[in-house]
Each structure stands twice: as C-alpha cells, then as structure tokens.
Specification:
Largest sheet: 51 strands, parallel
Distance between the termini: 101 Å
Radius of gyration: 36 Å
Shape: rod-shaped
Structural class: mainly beta
Oligomer: single chain
Length: 441
Amino acid sequence: MPEEVRVTRETVREIGEVEGNLVVQDGTVRAMEPGGVVKVAGVTDCRDDCQFLASLVTSELRGRGGDIEIEGDLTVEKSIRVRRGELDVSGNLRAKKIEVDRRLGVGGEFETEDVRVGGSLRVRGDAKASRLDVGGSFKASSDAEVEEIDVGGSVRVEGSTKSGTINVGGSFQGEGQVEAEIIDVGGSVKIESEATVREIDVGGTVKMSGGTARDVKVGGSFRSSDPLVFERIRVGGTVKISGGKGGDIDVGGTLRSEGDLTFETIDVGGTVKIEGSANGRNIEVGGSVNVSDDLELSEELRVGGKASAGGKLKARAVLVGGKVEAERVEAVEEIRTNTLRTRSGAKAEYIEIGRRGEVEGTLIGRKVLIRERARVEDVYADMVTLRKGCRAGNIYANSITVEHDCRVSGEVKYTESLQADRDVRFYSQPEKTEKLPEPPF
C-alpha cells in the first residue's frame, strides 16, 4: 500500500520523494537539499495555509480553507483544485486543469489546458492555455496564447496576445501585437500595437494602433492611430482613423480620417472629414463631407448639408442639399445642389441648381436647369432653362429657355431655338450659329 506522509500544523518538514500521498495541514515543506524538488507520486492535499519552500512535482494538488504558497516551480500531472483559498507560485506552473476559488499568481511561465479562477489571475511569464475563465481580472506581464479567454472584469496583456475568442465584461488592454478571431468586450478595448482581428464587438470604446479588423462594431467611439484594413465598421458615436482600406463604414455621429481612405460605402449621420484623398463607391451623410484632396466615387455622393473637396470631385451622381465646393466636379449622370463653387467648372448629363442658388465656375451638361432667382456664370449645354429672376453670364446651348425677370450679362449663342419672355434683359444680342464654342473640358 502506498505510503501517506503528513505534515502537521505549524511544523516544518524536509521531504524528497513520496511514493503515495502528501497531506499538509497548516505546515511548511522543504526539499532535502537547497534548490531541490519535492516529488509526490500521488495527491498533495493542503489544508488551511501551506507553504512549500521548494519546487513541487505531484499527480494532483488539492487545497481547502487556506492559501498555498510555492517558492519554486509547480508541475502537476493532472489537476489543481483550491477551495476557498489562493495559490501563489513564484516559478513556472504547469498542469492540465486548474480551479482556484480566489486568486492565482504565477511568477514564471504558465501552461494549462483549462484554468478557472474566481478572483484574479496574474502571470509574469508567458501564459499558454486552451481555456481561461476568470471571474475578476487577468494580467499577463509577457505573451499570452489562449484559445478562449472569458473574464468578467478586466484583461491586460503586456506582451503579445494570440487567441480565438476574447470575451471580457469590462476592459481589454493589449500592449503588444494582438491576433484574435473575436474580441467581445462590454466596456473598452485598447490595443497598443498592430492587430489582426476578424471581429470586434465592444459596447463602449476602442483604441487601436492599426492593422486588420474585418468586422468592427462599437457602441461608443472607435479610434485607430495607424492605417487600418477592414471590411465593415459600425459605430454609434465617433470614428477617428489614420487612413486605410476597406469596405463599409456606418457611423451615427462623425467620421474623421487622417490619411487617404479607400472604401465601399460611407453612411454617417453627422460629419465626415478626410485629410487626404477618398476613393469608394457611395457616400451618404446627413451633415457635411470635407475631403482635403480628390474625392472619387463610382456611384453616388448624397449629402444633406455641404460637400467639399480640395481637388477633383467625381461620381456617378452628386446630390447635395446645401453647397458643393471643389477644384472641379464631374458626374456621369447628374449634379443637384443649391450652391456650387468650383475653380475649373462642373460637368454632368443633368445639372440642377436650386432656388436662390449660386454658382461660381462654368457649368457643362446636356441639360441644365437653373431654378428661380439663382445666379450662375457661364453655361455650356444642349438644353438650358433659366427660371424667373435668374442671373447668368455666357450661355452656349442648342436650345435655350429664359423666363421673365432674368438677366444675362454675357454672350448668348444657340443653334436651334431661343425662347425668352419679354422682360428678359440680354446685355448682348443673342446669336444663332451653326457651331457652338467648345466647353473648357
């Protein structure tokens, strides 16, 4: 029958190897030689507070009603179970399965398949596990490679993080590179190095240092200090990124990009500001859009207020409720706005300027409609209509219609027809010609 060795209350005993079980009750165990190892073939059973002034190798470690302190390495073949107590290991810890009701501290490397801690888990060396379940907080001072992280409070990894799923009720902070399939956090996420994440779902705020995040969903604010590659960003509040390349961006408040941005669609309730160039398919914004360089879309620009570009603005359709400003505006199909300011003109199949609108720069289109009391400069078109009370510079078109109380201060040349009310004032006599002047572009 295997032996059972007992260490009684408040005693110190030197042990080398135990063929059977070791029972320690509020006692201290030393190795036979300085720096040695205590080896237990069976179960090590700790009752109340227990201390090992050596490394321990055992089949199982059990504890109840107290704290276990190991000044060295702990290697457990099967499982660790500490009830109503803590476990503190100054060296490395390796075990298949670990359950600790209160706190677990590891001074060296940590490796397990499954660890469950009711309070906090602290690891100074590298941490490696298949599953980590902590009720309070988890801190790793070095790298962490954990397939599934489930923590009720907070997670902080000072090295790199590699995981399948990171599920945290409070906050997650990764100071090194982060590689994960899913980050699901109730409060905040902060990643201080490059990240590669398939899905981010956070209730509060996210701060990243760039990388790749395929699907981002954030209730509050999202920020990336370096360029980001993404497929979809959905944020309830504000987004601030340093440029990037990706798919759809859906923001309830504001979007700001400090760098060139390539995308599929942008849908923002408030404002968009891009410090660089913007290239995508669609933009729909309730407030305003400001791009410091060129803005190019394959489909629509739809803005409730103001749209401006420091360079060229190109789209299939430009539909802006208030004002458009750009070096040049080119639309395949239509431009509809109230105020249009360009340095080298605007061109589309159909152009419509709203009531009391203002245009600076040449208009070039197949059909151009200037609504009541608007002011424009030169117009080149197939068909031009000026509603009542408009003011215009030069008009060159095949067919021209000018309603009453309009004033045209420049040349008027047409090839087919001119219809003008009696009180229209032409500063130069309209001229019918066989060929119209070429538009500037």
